[in-house]
Amino acid sequence: TIKVEDDRTGLSLETLKRAIADNLFYIQGKYPAIATKNDFYMALAYTVRDRLLQRWLNTTETYLKSKVKVVCYLSAEFLMGPHLSNNLVNLGIYDQVRRAVEESGLDFVELREQEEEPGLGNGGLGRLAACYMDSLASLEIPAIGYGIRYEFGIFDQEIRDGWQIEITDKWLRYGNPWEIERPEASIDVKFGGYTQAYNDENGHYRVRWIPDIIVKGVPYDTPILGYKVNTANTLRLWKAEAPESFEFEAFNVGDYYGAVNEKVVAENITKVLYPNDEPIQGKQLRLQQQYFFVSCSLQDMIRLHLHRQDSLDNFHESFAVQLNDTHPAIGVAELMRLLVDEHQIDWDRAWQITQNTFAYTNHTLLPEALEKWPLSLFGRLLPRHLQIIYEINQRFLGQVRAKYPDDHQRIARLSLIDESGEKYIRMAHLASVGSHAINGVAALHTKLLQQDVLRDFYELWPEKFTNKTNGVTPRRWIVVSNPKLAELINRKIGTNWIKHLEELKQLEAFVEDAEFRQQWRQIKQDIKRDLAEYVKKNHAIDINPQSLFDVQVKRIHEYKRQHLNALYIITLYNQIKQNPNIDVVPRTFIFGGKAAPGYFMAKLIIKLINSVAQVVNNDPDVRERLKVVFLPDYNVRFGQRVYPAADLSEQISTAGKEASGTGNMKFSMNGALTIGTLDGANIEIREEVGAENFFLFGLTTPEVYALKAKGYNPWDYYHANSQLKTVIDLISSGFFSHGDTNLFRPLVDSLLYHDQYMLFADYQSYVDCQEQVNQAYRDEEKWTRMSILNAVRMGKFSSDRAIREYCQEIWNAQPVNVEMQE
Ligand SMILES: CCc1ccc([C@H](C)CC(=O)N[C@@H]2O[C@H](CO)[C@@H](O)[C@H](O)[C@H]2O)cc1
């Protein structure tokens, strides 16, 4: 008998080909002759999604049936990246699906590139959340990612005449095959209005909240499949809608706008992601977004808990809730409101449950990124929460006073309310008081948190603080992004490394194997050639694959010092112009990164890089040896293309400013060497790969503090270093701006008069270090050895290691085996 596989789950070539054709017909309603590339992509996506569903439903059923602890990751951002390839790798069916597509006469790569990237994040914080979701599922830890389904994600970036232009990100224009709407699980969320105290039937003091408006939260679920396991966790993203999308009464009296007004107001809440990646703006809509998704998520958790249990007394045993920075910190007050007001649990018990439920991760030391909300705005939008925060603060400061009587400064510093000038609510304080655990994202960062930003909390509760150095998923950042390298590693040590990255160390045995080094080098060369072709085809720029690919891709920010990189490029340019016979290693400087639309200096830095590129790339004296390219629209898909192609990874932030960095890990895992400062996770990468395999420069954090304390005058460096002076004067002269001496003045003046991030102090050390890079790159075998060691010693930086630490030290969560019911 011919066994016909189920169209939905079969993995044979025939079944896959039939499934794609059927989905094109029955879902897209198209037959091949009239189908667009996007139709074929959708048909393929649904074919792959079908093969996720069994695991997904089995997982949900397993969790509902058992009383397992579920990790809930609350994040305002999830930078997931394209789903197709990642799901094919985690299902272990990449090659057969690729063949099925090609045997159907379609171009797999073309279809793959059709997928709109869900850009529901700004940068590091959002991408970390995505890597952690992949590791939670791959480690079979029950988990739910809770966030916001922005209609418009991070803007698409175009570069026009050297300037960043922001384009609206209509990622949902063709629909999203990877999500399922769950209208039946909608949740109501209140805003505004007033509160009313009353005594309930048992004479207990109670408060009710009478809101101005109610908004409906509709969840959209996306399956998050682990690597080669049966576990598929859920990413639940909330969309705001009006309870009644159409007011007939208003319509009948001809008030057409009134009829849809509520709809518009409600939907605005999840309309767009705030494109700021550090500086906060304290906009009302931002607070509405934060409260909206947090309230939906906590109400959803309580509903799930009461589905499995009959009292909320052990809610904290059901759910471990991680606050991804302060953006969801309102959750502390919201859980108290739900437990006390909605479920009549007494305050002290509710507070215990709340503190045992929440944990808080801080991702930044920059003072301007620490969220604080004006009391006026907060009280208007969330009157009941303001009362609850007052109550929390009063009880908290009571404890502080008991421990530090008469230390009024300390009490004022610790208070949830910043009373100096206009009053603010300090969200980092609310998160710290309401959590049983607080962590930074790299060893240095956590130390600086304890010594500086959260010093008073550390002195109060040292036991709450632990470090959780960031990690990245080797599935997307090696297996999906660099299949050739993954293949070479598989051939040498098998495939266990993909879930046990520390096993990469076994490859150290091959460093002295010339054949292996040749293969390693060839892979990098092939990828560089592919990137050069991509840049030629899409940006009409010729780059030399033989040159050293020096890459800096990350959000544009003064503390990340993309402009220090530009100062080095101009220095090198001047060296060649002054002495054309100088023997420099041909270099291609590749930049990528978005600037927050309101961040003027960041945008000027993009303009400077493009202006320098203009001159350098068109100067016959240098262009064969120096090329500068700013590739637009840096996102996850772009990262997957550029990390494997890099020779040198630029991690040059001012010491003490980059909390961790995660790009640094992705570069090193793909064999790039790092030039960097002792900042964030660079320090731990250098410890793992060996100081001899890391190009270190610059002031350390204590040296930065000391120099600041002593009084740092950038002019001293300008006058003392003629090479630096020449570079700065060249920029001021208008040489890179068609003679316009005003264009870059704001940037030059900020350096000469402030240089907040100490570029001048680190300039010479950076230039000298770059010379060491040149020396090393000349010795191909030496460089290859260093490249191999940089990659194979990166085991620590897998997000699996980080998640295992969170599970053991913060969440007390265990893996749960999901059976595959046939
Ligand atoms: C309110 C605006 C806003 C938005 C995002 C943020 C994030 C905290 C910024 C961010 O992405 N921080 C980065 O987090 C990464 C993951 O931990 C770290 O690796 C980076 O060092 C840190 O800059 C701050 C403020």
Automatic annotation (TrEMBL):
<comment type="similarity">
    <text>Belongs to the glycogen phosphorylase family.</text>
</comment>
<dbReference type="Pfam" id="PF00343">
    <property type="entry name" value="Phosphorylase"/>
</dbReference>
<dbReference type="GO" id="GO:0030170">
    <property type="term" value="F:pyridoxal phosphate binding"/>
</dbReference>
<protein>
    <recommendedName>
        <fullName>Alpha-1,4 glucan phosphorylase</fullName>
        <ecNumber>2.4.1.1</ecNumber>
    </recommendedName>
</protein>
<dbReference type="InterPro" id="IPR011833">
    <property type="entry name" value="Glycg_phsphrylas"/>
</dbReference>
<comment type="function">
    <text>Allosteric enzyme that catalyzes the rate-limiting step in glycogen catabolism, the phosphorolytic cleavage of glycogen to produce glucose-1-phosphate, and plays a central role in maintaining cellular and organismal glucose homeostasis.</text>
</comment>
<keyword id="KW-0808">Transferase</keyword>
<dbReference type="GO" id="GO:0005980">
    <property type="term" value="P:glycogen catabolic process"/>
</dbReference>
<dbReference type="InterPro" id="IPR035090">
    <property type="entry name" value="Pyridoxal_P_attach_site"/>
</dbReference>
<keyword id="KW-0321">Glycogen metabolism</keyword>
<keyword id="KW-0328">Glycosyltransferase</keyword>
<comment type="function">
    <text>Phosphorylase is an important allosteric enzyme in carbohydrate metabolism. Enzymes from different sources differ in their regulatory mechanisms and in their natural substrates. However, all known phosphorylases share catalytic and structural properties.</text>
</comment>
<feature type="modified residue" description="N6-(pyridoxal phosphate)lysine">
    <location>
        <position position="666"/>
    </location>
</feature>
<keyword id="KW-0119">Carbohydrate metabolism</keyword>
<dbReference type="GO" id="GO:0008184">
    <property type="term" value="F:glycogen phosphorylase activity"/>
</dbReference>
<keyword id="KW-0663">Pyridoxal phosphate</keyword>
<dbReference type="InterPro" id="IPR000811">
    <property type="entry name" value="Glyco_trans_35"/>
</dbReference>
<dbReference type="GO" id="GO:0005737">
    <property type="term" value="C:cytoplasm"/>
</dbReference>
